[in-house]
Protein 1
Amino acid sequence: MKLKGLGIFALGTLFGLEGIKVLSSKDAKKVYTHCTAGVLRAKDSVLDQVTVLQENCSDIYEEAKAINEERAKKEETAE
Amino acid sequence: MRFTIKHEIRNRMRIHLAMKRMSFREADTFDYYLKNFDEIREVKVYERTADAVIVFDCDRSRVKDIVKDFSFDDIQVPERVFECSGRELSAAYYDKLVTTVVMHFAKRLVVPFDIRRIWDTAKTLGYIWRGLKTFKNGQLQVEMLDAMAITAAILTGDHNTASNVMFLLKIGDTLEEWTHKRSVDDLARRMSLNIDKVWMLTDDGEILTDSSKIACGDIVVVRMGNMIPFDGEVTSGEAMVNQASMTGESVAVHKSISSSVYAGTVVEEGEITIKVTQTEGCGRFDKIVKMIEESEKLKSSVESKAERLADRLVPYILLASGLTWVFSRNVTKAVSVLMVDYSCALKMSMPISVLSAIKEASQYDITVKGGKFLEAVAEADTIVFDKTGTLTKAKPTVVRVVAFCDESEDELLRQAACLEEHFPHSVARAVVDAAFDKGLMHDELHTNVEYIVAHGIASEIEGEKAVIGSFHFVFEDEGVVIPDNRKSIFDTLPDEYSHLYFAKNGRLAACILIEDPMREETRATVEKLRAQGFKHIVMMTGDSERTAAKIAAEAGITEYYAEVLPEDKAGYVEKVKEEGRKVIMVGDGINDSPALSASDAGIAISDGAEIARQIADITIGSDNLESIAILREISTLLMKRIKFNYRTIVGFNTALIVLGITGVMPPATSAMLHNGSTVVLGLKSMTDLLPNKAV
């Protein structure tokens, strides 16, 4: 029990001494930058997908409208 | 340019250009290029995917050729196209919306619960702050209720509900902001396209020049009622300039020699000559946008009453919540009453209704600056028309020139045109056009044009004092006399025309007879407006009593005022407003701008003076007066829709509360029904109000 406490204390002290340095080091910063870039890329690709979806939806809608117009015309001529 | 066809049906094609993505500029360029072809009916360019939808009226191979011929390098696009495109703005808001939605759901998957909890709690503080700010005004407003609901949800540990409510509120806000920005933008676009001619001062006098041809260092003259087209420095003259677009200050500023003036500001009175220091591309468009926004701010509240309908509910909801707690002693149930969020549904459906109505109006060439004005149009019972250019055709014509001196009629017309050329009024334009049609070109003969609004112009021609204007101005103010030997001609001047008097050296030189034919649709429109519930349809004109009576009878108007001055028009509007009635003013020129701004909803005809369009709350296309009747119909239907939405939302959600409290319906079902009804109402509010669209 005591040992565990000591261990945690030691780890904490070590983190206090070195960890902050590691977390704010140049390399770490690189990691953050890349992570952020990744998130932005992901967001961008989601936006791309949404646009593609929107385009396809309007294609479908327009084509559906054209089909109905065609049908209405046919019915009209049949009568 | 190479491209592939991604989808095709008859007369519609979606293509993909051989590139990954377009910049905003490239997309605008492509759009501009395609729209220049008559056979292409509609274009929508998606910059994100480098796709374009083309709707056309020709053979498909022609379209393919058109696109094949396209190249970004070959085509010259005016800078104005980019300035006014609005593509970037739309993209930014679109981006923001999608991000909000995606983040909301992704957050739940990725971010640990504890972090989300801290994050949501932090955001709650923002809403509480907003709530408290409205509370400071001593009113219970929806923001307060939002804050309470969110706080209650957080405190009871219901984080999902709290973040859902915040999410919906944010979406509502963003949508509102976007649509508002867009309508302001649309308006600014129209306005910025309208100022394309300026008076350039050269050694040979003033010449009407295309504003794109003006370079730095050129001298430009700007007169009353017109917008200053460029940044510059005053070299002569004095004027009161309205700089609301720059400073937000509504009081005009005095400008004289060596003061700086800015593009997008308006000369309210006087005349100045400026040396241009900066030409096109100096963000004129942005300045117009800013000016419109400022003018909105100046009008005490932008929000219409309808948008604040929800406030009325706040005390009742608090009461209901309190009662629930008193009777059930159950905190969760009391909180659940707070949580049924009328405000989300109202906040989504109201702006959507108003904005889709504004959009629908724009299909009829009507530009509305805000929902408030639609409300005013729906409620008004008095409509005041300025005669010239409004009830009558925008372009009056010269019938005849009657000479009162020995100069030829053509020579007199030439001199009159020379003066009138500087006056932004439709009668003045008629004189100029008549001279032009007869091939009477002129050099600038006179020296200094003085303005005297509504009455006429005074100047000097070849050393002689010359005045032109109405009877009141020429004879009463200027004391002009009629040559003795021509008195009989004067007495027999025909009454059915408007008279414009031209005098030199204190003696009447000519009377220009102007016919101002009534618009074909005037009578029908007046009848329609009466049927739509306008109790007072009033005509105002500076013309003589006899001409006014004739026109009024022809238009079917019983209430008219003749020989009125501009300040009288505004005075009448004020008087009617004091009686507690709502007034619409319809006008076109400088001399009704005070009345336009005094009225509850000022409607300007779009080819009138610049200042009228800036002050007016609503602008209609110049070719059809009937749009006023259409506008009234849209407004009335909009009010109906808003009331219907309000009742439905309140009724439906109240039923949900009751069912929830009594335990008949499980919370999940009522939440689903609540959200479902919000979406359905929102969608319904987007549909057109008028049954069939005029083409």
Protein 2
Amino acid sequence: MSALLSNLSLGFSVAFTLPNLGLCFLGCLVGTLIGVLPGIGPIATITMLLPVTFGLPPVGALIMLAGIYYGAQYGGSTTAILVNIPGEVTSVVTTIDGHQMARQGRAGAALGIAALGSFFAGCVATVIIAGLAVPLTRVALLFGPAEYAALMTAGLAFAVVLARGSILKSIAMVLLGLLLSTVGQDLETGADRMTFGVASLSDGIDFAVLAMGLFGFAEVMRNLTVDQARDVVHGKIGRLLPTRGELKQSALPVVRGTLLGAVLGILPGNGAVLGPFASYALEKKLARDPRRFGRGAIEGVAGPESANNAGAQTSFIPLLTLGIPPNAVMALMVGAMTIHGIVPGPLVMTRNASLFWGVIASMWIGNLMLLVINLPLIGAWVRLLKVPYRLLYPTIVIVCCVGIYSVNNLPEDVLATSVVALLGYAGSRLGFESAPLLLGFVLGRLLEENLRRALAISRGDLAIFIHRPVSAWLLLTGLIVLVVAVVPAIRTRREQVFVEE
Amino acid sequence: MARIRVQAPQDLVAGASLVAVALFALWAAGPLDSGRMGAPGPGLLPRFLALMVGGAGLALVGVSLARPGESLGRWPVRGPALIALSVVTFALTIRVPGLVVAGPAAMLVAGAASPETRWKELAIFSFAVTAVCTALFRSLLHLPIPILVIPGWVTL
């Protein structure tokens, strides 16, 4: 306990320096901005800002990038409530009851409870990260290549189950992502693999190109085909502070949402996205009168909004302790770390203690800042929402272009991104999701490296993955998760969680 | 003999595309050595993954024949193609003559993707955005983006 306190005080001493406070604020501000704007999310934004962080000290860079990620969770709810369009994937469920509340003239209360719930979730998640970091890191140090490979495989299994849509298609996307990650020089022999003699492919497919194509441009292409008519709530937002009765109604959903979101967020495989859906389903089930849901039930805002923020933060845990990015945003964090010579993994906590705890402490500070950015300044964001999409999307295109060009200062990257975007768009028309593909790609190299190391140790005997207990358990968990997802009874339940009206 | 009917056209095309991708990858990985289990070569994993992707594709094709599913739906081409063209425009003009041209040009091409675009408004707006981008990325963030380059004349 005292170790935890001393660690946290080290963290706060790092985070409370002027430049880091500034970067934290900047990250939260940018995060809220892109959260509010539909059509651009944290993946494209962080890819775009990666070159900017090259010049920053590593702590500052990570503090800012983290702020963008959890800041986007706050911003996303504003759009969901006021416009009935999710600003981010994680605020999809908020549109259901949040927008109904807004139509009944209770927009202020919805926004207020979303921000307060997120703040509570952020505080709890910060403590959870701090508390779990040390024991998990100790576990991670016992991990050999076989365990790492097994853990990543289990993570990919989770990713398949947690993805929306067809399970078979998700599996295919994870496999395709893994396959794409094998393009480039072989780690051991140095042989060029599937590069067709293109020199720039020797380093592998650029993650930034893939991420920006699939989540920046392809997103714009997809949005063009849906009707972007804005249903901005007119008239007053009303008082932002929820009444005592509303607070009482929301208290337990916030706590439950936080815990649910935090647990799902830790899962490797982007559990953070599932959190709000699960929380909504849970609140509806627990409610005395489930019919209120969909008609402006405040619990339907409080729970999911807490869950998405908790999940966004706890998804840092696998990265910081095991060095395994559980989603694409965390993979970009890996990029930001390795540029500064920091290898993500269990050693970060001891070798870069001030960075580790500084980033964690900054999350709490950032959540406090976000409360201010989102509640008193809500008027500014509402005005931003009135910018029509016909002007917004060319702006997103151009800013993404500048961003992807800046990563390597290569026009070829920009060209490649346009190809990826078209493929991503075609994929989405066929019902393929981009998220599992990107995760497979992210984990691919790490997985292959550990797989081959494990096989080298066992002299080619695959049984090593079963003989080592931890690895066996992890693989079994992954298998069970997959099997369970395919069993019809549970599959319909899973679909219900995602559909929810 | 019962005729086989396609019940889920979307899944059929999706599965067939995966099979195509897998075949392409197998061909591309052709010259790579697979090695043995004890000493895996560079080709082992790509080949294994390609086979798995192909397998998933075949399974999807199978499902599409057995279970009713979604139709192919609409495939709007104009919008996405123009967005891609806009990105290509940017790529071709960013080095020479630089962002001053690349920015507005890319935005105007992108604007053609939506029927709602008002050209005069977008033209003015595109120059404003380019100015903001210049200030933000070049002046404030010090990224080496070419602003205006006319060979032998100006390099900004």
Protein 3
Amino acid sequence: MKIKVSTKKIANKRIGLDLEALPDPTGTWYGPAKHKLALCIGYGVGDDLHYVQAIDRRPGLFSARDLLRVREAIVGNIIVAHNASYDIGLVNGLLGEHPDLGTNYELPPMFVLDTMGDFKWGGAARNGLSERCDRANRLGWPVKAKIGSPNWRRIAQGDKIEWKVMKEYNLTDVECALGLEEFYRECDSEKTIKIKMWKP
Amino acid sequence: MSSDVLRAKKKYIAIRRAERRLQTRLDDIDWEFDVLLPEVEKLELEASEKLEIPEFTIVKDED
């Protein structure tokens, strides 16, 4: 008896994902209905970045076509995101509760590379997102970091100009996640992020 | 008398078997930490880098 070893592809490519949502008025960070506060979704890789946002800038209300585009782009690929299960869970919530889609379009289990999931606390100092980006940049790996933040109150009021800021903020985060993942994977002194499985 | 010998013999065998099992288990733990876990870690990291995982199939020897 012998053991034959072959390889199996688990994803076609890495794809960045970031979903922005309004802070939950109940004060919980990630409540069961948080997707109802979703504002926009950025996704893609390299120069092929895409952005969809809520219809008429109303939180939680997305067109079915936009959501299906997101779904098509991410299924079969490996998701790269900061706190990936949060973003995927919210995308899944939007798909599952969309009146034109129903549960048929809920996401299958997905592979993720979470840029914030592992080694979040580095010793005594907090090892948050900006610290990680700083470290990558100090070691010569240019990682585009989030700068500032939109005015969430104006966003909630549907302010058009603020929503343009939101788009840039969101897509910068997609690039940031991809850059950080590459830094961890390619830089010898860093710890590679392990693949995890997200399940609905 | 003979039952006392049998009892002692059984206890001796039980202790010796337990010692052997304990030693094997302790050796297994060392092997898991020193050999197996690094191999599994390597597998996980390679999966992250190459986006592929190994598949294992048992095949019969061709005689």
